[in-house]
Write a structure and sequence with these properties.
- The complex is a heterodimer.
- Chain A is of the alpha+beta class.
- Chain A has eight helices and six strands, in the order αααβββααββαβαα.
- In chain A, the strands form three sheets. Chain A has a two-stranded antiparallel ribbon. In chain A, strands 3-6 form a two-stranded antiparallel ribbon. Chain A has a two-stranded antiparallel ribbon with strand order 4-5.
- The radius of gyration of chain A is 28 Å and the shape is extended.
- The N and C termini of chain A lie far apart (73 Å).
- Chain B is mainly alpha-helical.
- Chain B has helices at 5-26, 50-58, 65-81, 85-89, 93-106, 123-138, 148-158, 164-176, 181-186, 188-197, 216-220, 247-251; strands spanning 32-35, 38-41, 45-48, 202-206, 257-261.
- Chain B has a three-stranded antiparallel beta sheet with strand order 1-2-3. In chain B, strands 4-5 form a two-stranded antiparallel ribbon.
- In chain B, strand 1 and strand 2 (38-41) form a beta hairpin.
- In chain B, helix 2 packs parallel to helix 6 (123-138), helix 5 (93-106) packs parallel to helix 8 (164-176) and helix 7 crosses helix 8.
- Chain B is globular, with a radius of gyration of 19 Å.
- Chain B starts with a helix and ends in a 6-residue tail after the last strand.
- The chains are: A alpha+beta, B mainly alpha.
- At the A-B interface, helix 1, helix 2, helix 3 and strand 1 of A face helix 1, strand 1, strand 2, helix 2 and helix 3 of B.
Amino acid sequence: MANSDNNRRKFFATTLQSVGLTALGGLLWSGYSDEVKASPLVLRPPGAIKEEDFLAACIKCGLCAEACQNRDTNIDKVTGKARPGTLLMAKGGDHKLIGTPYFIPTEVPCYMCEDIPCVPVCPSGALDMPSLLNEKEELDINKSRMGLAVVHKESCIAFWGIQCDACYRACPLLDEAITLEYAKNERTGKHAFLLPIVHDDVCTGCGLCEMACVTEKPAIFVLPHEVSQGKAGSHYVKGWDKADEKRLENAQAEITTTERSEKSSEDYLNTEELY
Amino acid sequence: MNNIKYLLLRRVTQIGILVLYFGANAWGWNILAGTFGSSVLFGVIPLADPYTTLQVLATGFVLGTDVLLGALIMTLFYFVVGGRAFCSWVCPINMVTDLANWLRRKLNLDKEEVNYRFIKRKARYWIMVLGLIVSAVVGIAAFEVLSPITIMQRGIIFGFGAGIAVIIAIFLFDLFGVKNGWCGHLCPLGASYSLIGKASLIRVKHDHEACTACMKCKVVCPENQVLHMIDKKSISVTDGECTNCGRCIDVCDDDALKFSIRSFGKK
């Protein structure tokens, strides 16, 4: 009797211990996992779904990076050897979620292959092929949105008045994703500025402009959309734009009520605390 | 030579598979591409790791059919060849932990008094379940964040980076910490394959009549609790934790152990 009592106590104690240690492990593990997925400045392959979902969906197989490395167009015409692929697999120390594909435009930008070898091989759905199909149901790399190029005008020498159109000419969507805006150079009075302007409805985020930029640290660079784009929100609508006005269709009035203060407005003047 | 037959076969298989994966990236080979998480065999047959697949599903993401089909194919394959055959015949970490284990014996670290046995072998099953819960809570495949298995495999294919530290940590843990610490106590991937192994077909069978009770098999076995029938009963090793590594068959001088098909029905 006493023995079975002891056994039961031991059973409860070890079960409790296991559950407790599992809870401890779970907390540490969750905390660590949550930290490692926070890398907002990462550029994903074409067709990548929203970053938060991408982190869940990517099974880290590397098939996209292998397809990129072995793409037919990746042969150096002079040496006949394969050049490095665009897509890298995040390693320990890269401070990106380990095993997920990404690219660094200043090392190797995305060359926007027409057949997009990296996307159809994705088995998990982290790279979404339907999002890259055009009206004719063909793969269209121009539909990809890997990021958005942003110009830092203070370091861009075109904004100084020096003639440079390196990014404009490097852009695969020439005169669409980046256009040159003319402006008068008031400093000299007789020269023109040719200012690069990025259009976010066309820019794919391939990074060829960043690669081509002549300044020591590129004055044009690609950032993920979450980082590079603002949002006007529902308080502002383009009243002259029929499409934008549609946003008002289901709008409801926002009614806020503030509780009426019972104190007299003069009360605070007679207390010690003024603020 | 006879007493390292299966060891050699395993090393050839392990390294051969890694070479195929490496070649797929480096030279565009089309035999076995991807990583253990998800692969493509001969450019058509999808393969996927069942536990990795479960983790992604736990995050709530609806996976592509290639991965789901691949996971099914892998489960059936290991149902035939023995669940943890993955661990001893495919997994590259096995070479690291086998080396640690071998050094442990050479450096006289094999004695019970220097073995920190503070983790139970059942811990891996808790970790396996926990991995799915953490995946669901955090929204990423939780074990894949720190899995030394795919870190090592990707390291070989794409370059290690700082990931090499994880491999060294496993080596040190197994050498100076717990004997068979990683593979035999902690690894949730091995635990998931153990579950498949509980019902798998190819198993080691013991012949009690031929056994001389030399216990060499128990010395080399990384999961020697599964060999409880040695010198007692002529039955198959049925525990899922057996990795089908065949070391016990290699070292047996009496032909008392061999691979066979598990006989269902009779005990």
